Amino acid sequence: MDMNCNLPVYREAYKLFEGTPREVWSVLWLLERYVNGAIAQIDRIHETTHQMSEYHRTWLHDQLFLDVHSYFICWDKAQNLLKHLVKVHPDPNLLQLWERLRLFCKPFNDSRNHLEHIDERLAKNPNETGSLAGDFFIFAGERFDISDQGLNALTGAYEEVIRMITVVDASGQSLPPDQYERLPWKPTIGRELPGRRR
Question: CA 37 to CA 12: how far, in whole Å?
């Protein structure tokens, strides 16, 4: 199996090391790692599902299960770190972002929890050890969202966090979203290939 090891990932936390309080930067650094982990896992999931028609279907199915589980771990840790960032960073816009995202996070948290208790789930439904149905992975009767929409929500939230932390007015206060939208120039927040730093 030929996995893509050159995925574009975020490298924003590295740029914020100097000048950011350690209690904020350390949470942001870990948040970025888990967002990048979710990106890598979705790429692996797509690669595996693309190859499912090939000879090694059973092995690929096993790999898909592990990648799906890892994707939900990354999602869950990222949402937990975002919640923690709200506690250590004074910007009230971060709290508003967390409140908007919290309900969207719940199915990913539930999915991770479900797969953490695999032994109990198999006892209830031993015939369903995992299958694909479009953008859903089905295990023990439960459907797990592995669509790009879920990843886009996570990466979009991370980019909002970076914008809130880095875009400030002359007094050092973060700009509200409506003022940010009116800026003639906006900072570049993007994913880079590993090994390349701006």
Answer: 15
Alpha-carbon span 175 to 159, nearest angstrom: 14
Mean pLDDT split into 10-residue runs, the chain, 198 residues: 59 80 92 94 87 64 85 94 93 90 86 80 72 80 85 92 74 65 61 49
- The answer to whether 122 touches 57, Cβ cutoff 8 Å, is no
pLDDT at 53: 62
CA distances from 194 to 40, 41, 54, 96, 153 (A): 12, 16, 29, 32, 22
Q: Specify the pLDDT at position 60.
A: 74
Q: Look at residue 175 in the predicted model and tell me its pLDDT.
A: 64
Taking a C-beta distance cutoff of 8 angstroms, is the pair 48, 67 a contact? Answer: yes
Domain ranges (residues) in the chain: 9-192
d(CA 160, CA 112): 24
Question: Does pTM surpass 0.90?
Answer: no
What does the block give as tokens for 173? 């206060």
Cβ atoms 30, 42 nearer than 8 A: no
CB 93 within 8 A of CB 109: no
DSSP 63-131: HHHHHHHHHHHHHHHHHHHHHHHHHHS--HHHHHHHHHHHHHHHHHHHHHHHHHTHHHHHHH-TT-S-E
Strand, helix or coil for residue 193:
coil
